[in-house]
Amino acid sequence: MAVIINEENRMFQLITDNTEYQFQADEYDVLRHLWYGEKVGTPMSYLLSYPDVGFAGNPYDAGNDRTYSLHTQPLEYACEGIGDYRSAAVSITHADGSTALDLRYTGYTLHKGKYSLTGLPAVYADEDEAETLEIYLKDTASETEVTLRYGILAGYDVITRCAVIRNAGTEPIRLRKAASLCLDLPYGSWEQLHFHGRHAMERQAERLPLLHGVQEISSSRGTSSHQQNPSVILCSPDCTEQSGRCIGAFFVYSGSFKIRTELDELNQVRLLLGLNPDTFTWTLNSSEIFETPEAVMTYSGSGFAEMSHHFHSIIRRHICRGKYKLIERPVLLNNWEATYFDFNEEKILQIAESASELGVDMLVLDDGWFGKRDSDTSGLGDWFVNEQKLKGGLPELVKRINALGMQFGLWFEPEMISEDSELYRQHPDWAIRIPGRAPMRGRFQLVLDLSRTDVQDYLFRVMSGILDSANITYIKWDMNRSISDLYSHALSPERQGELSHRYVLGLYALLERLVQKYPDVLFEGCSGGGGRFDAGMLYYCPQIWCSDDTDAYERTKIQYGTSFIYPISAVGSHVSVVPNHQTGRITPLTSRAVTAMAGSFGYELDLGLLSEEEKNAVSEQIRSFKSIGPLIHNGSYYRLSDPTKDNYACWSYVSDDKETVLVHGMLFHAQPNMKQAALRLQGLDAQACYTLSGTDAVYTGAALMNGGILLPPYWGDYSPVEMQFRKVHEI
Ligand code: DGJ
Question: How far apart, in whole angstroms, are the C-alpha atoms of residue 723 and residue 112?
Fold first, then answer.
């Protein structure tokens, strides 16, 4: 039983294999948060304290008790306008214009299995893998009701959360904020780790102490964004990869979001995660409900590695779906950096031929194959083949590529429209723009209004037409600008504030139709690289192009940050040419390969232009990836260094039985007279002996984890690290 309920004390304990979460409805029916952390086995209400804090008001029903204040108590879902001056989880405007909301506990239900959400991605599980607890709350003065949903996946140490807001009154209400997760931490000292960046430099790990007041991570771009990832980790100041306390949370959502961390005057922390209120309002008519997207959280008392393992497992096994979720993905070659827009069918076939000779499984044809698309100024929306470029069309090209023994994949950017396109000439009102106002253009293009079902239907029809026309087994789904100028011709003025969220719902509806119709097609997400790298997209696409930066050195840092939350199999990663097209940097081919192997592996160059020696190396890399790929994707991933601080990036994959350990990495900058660093491994069997492949040396697991293993000497910059250990016997 993952949930223990004490009916008398109205006390709820959500218990997973290694964690416990507690809250309680108190004497005023206020739902107070009590605990998230180690299993404690006892109600933590004894830690509640009642300071008489000046200017902290008291609810009316507390009478003359100055010590009971909503502003000082840890709350499970904080409301607005009733004396808790910290950030609220939910804000509404009632029909009379007032904004106070005072939610009190009215009851609960508990059932086996995991709740699902309508039209939104969410963690899924079998009946016996999860439990769902629903807590019912109601406003003291209106007919507004809120249900807090908790999905408990005990075996994964994961708790999911969302809220359902219902207007049980007769007049419409307007929702202005509805967080998916509200977590009050009244004790402990916390730092925040989050992942920021920019185009081609996504998910840079940044760890900061919390300052009094509010700290925010957000996107108002209509996508989860390159700039901030919808995930956060709160950790104890002593937290490392292997020890210390941390709470991680991510949003299963691909649009605008806000994560707010507040350190209050009593040094208590409140974490809020949900839709971005800056770009959101929602009108609820009588009897209507609003379901928030889902938040997923976990706790680890043993540092970041364990936290990441919880998230990797839950995303791989209970968010990703479809045929490819757990199997090895094809090694692909994408033509983008090889040709950009400058190709024809002969060029593509020539690239495919040399790739097939070296063992590549799939050729992916990127941007430029459709409409009038010789540059990024035109053609988006016109999803019919450009036969001037591809003579004979797609069926002929795909047939010839299949004849080489290769699969064929195709790039789309379905959500976009170029003003210079047939589609825009026919349907200018399908673009998101405000009448009478010049729209912002991003990469010269506008965004299609995916909240409209006619737009979704058009895209479903044209994409199905292409997919049905040839043997296409992979789609790269790109999205190359942020959304602005929010306005939909299909929405009334009072509902324009709903467009940002309705857009994401429309995107999900379209993706769902396509993944259901084409279960054998592998979908890869992309947004100018990793601008929409989130768990929402991973529900439809089990892998996402991680970054437009293919420079291996920069990638070690991008992939380091990404790995805190997302599994290795989710990371699209390719070997490209040197000098690198984004940075001009030259890195050895092997270093580029081990870095790209920390993901769903592929190439992005014309392999025919390589020297014979390099071609042999590529074919050996592919052969090697076919054998180590299952360990890379199914094993436990460990970050063995911090590439933002250390002069090297190293990581490892450890098989479940701890028999095999693969260490990969890159030494960064060589200097004269350098001492070799000792790299401490993680996750081994301390009591076993391991040999290092290619040597006779034997080490105990304890020695490798405590003393470490010497890294190779530096010679030149960016040299690769490749070491494989095998367990030989117990000590
Ligand atoms: C951005 C993607 O991230 C690239 O890989 C490539 O597909 C281009 N778009 C094509 O326009």
Answer: 45
Residues 337-360 have pLDDT tens digits of 999 999 999 999 999 999 999 999
How far is residue 200's CA from residue 300's CA, in Å, rounded to a whole number?
Answer: 31
By alpha-carbon position, which residue is closest to atom 11 of ligand 1?
A: 367
Residue 549 Cα, ligand 1 centroid: separation in angstroms? 11
**What pLDDT, on a 0 to 100 scale, did the predictor assign at position 729?**
80
How far is it, in rounded angstroms, from Cα 473 to Cα 364? 10
User: Using one digit for the tens of pLDDT, what is the confidence trace for 79-89?
Assistant: 999 999 999 99
Amino acid at 227: Q
Q: Which of 126, 346, 454, 614 is catalytic?
A: 614
How do residues 137-155 score in pLDDT, each as one tens digit?
999 999 999 999 999 999 9
The residue type of 588 is: P
**With 80 as the cut, is the pLDDT of residue 694 above it?**
yes
Residues in Cβ contact with 122 at an 8 Å cutoff, skipping those fewer than 6 apart: 114, 115, 116, 151, 160, 162, 252, 293, 294, 539
| 405-427 mean pLDDT | 98
Determine which residue's CA is closest to atom 4 belonging to ligand 1. 528
Token look-up 């079998």 returns 126
Tokens 């009593």 locate to 266
E strands, 243-312, in order: 246-252, 257-263, 269-275, 282-284, 289-291, 294-300
Ligand 1 proximity of 549 Cβ (cutoff 6 Å): no
Q: What's the gap in Å between 527 CA and the centre of ligand 1?
A: 8
What are the angstrom distances between the C-alpha of 523 and each of 171, 258, 516, 518, 639? 43, 27, 12, 10, 28
Label the pairing between strands 688-692 and 719-730: antiparallel
Q: What is the pTM of this model?
A: 0.98
Contact 119, 110 (CB under 8 A): no
Residue minimizing CA distance to atom 2 of ligand 1: 528
Tokens 């001056």 correspond to 85
pLDDT at 12: 98
Report residue 225 CA to chain centroid gap.
Answer: 11
DSSP state for residue 413 in the 8-state scheme = -
Question: Measuring CA to CA, how many Å separate 83 from each of 70, 184, 277, 388, 483?
Answer: 6, 16, 20, 67, 36
Q: For residues 317-348, b (16+ Cβ closer than 10 Å) or e, as one string?
A: bbbbbbebbeebbbbbbbbbbbbeeebebeeb
